[in-house]
Amino acid sequence: MVQKPVFSGVLGINKNFQITQDSSSWDIFEIFFSPEMFKLIQKETNRYAKQKINKKTRGLSITQICICTVEYNLIARNKDFFVIIIHMSVLCKSSLRDYWSLCLIIHTAYTASVGMSRDRCHALLTMFHPNNNDAKAGRGQPGCDPLFKIWPVIDTLITKFQDFCTLESS
Question: 99: which of 62, 87, 138, 153 lies 20 to 30 Å off by Cα?
Fold first, then answer.
């Protein structure tokens, strides 16, 4: 049987982070999802949406283009989107539509109280991109990585967790 090394040392939250009993859930969330990450997500999501809008609007009138642009008037300006996504991970329903349902059996007051319509949330979810697709290797090509689109988020979270938690062993 393999012997696991005995862990000894200091565990816990790095003292450089000002976390107190009065810290809100949002304070903790912002440690890991910094304004810089939101800016990156906004930039890449907007880039992707513009690419989709340009593809979708070829041959359309100026009015139709404006409607498409408003339809995808985009993400990380509005953190409500992330609040709803986190809420959805805690309270699972069979369909995205169910979170906004008025049917008493499946109604969830919280989702509607956040102030984002179902259609806007769906549009943002459709356009959500944390990485530039132009730099992605195609399927079956050398260097193709199925996690390419989310690597910026993974890298940031790994760094933040390493900075936030003190795990020392001897």
Answer: 153
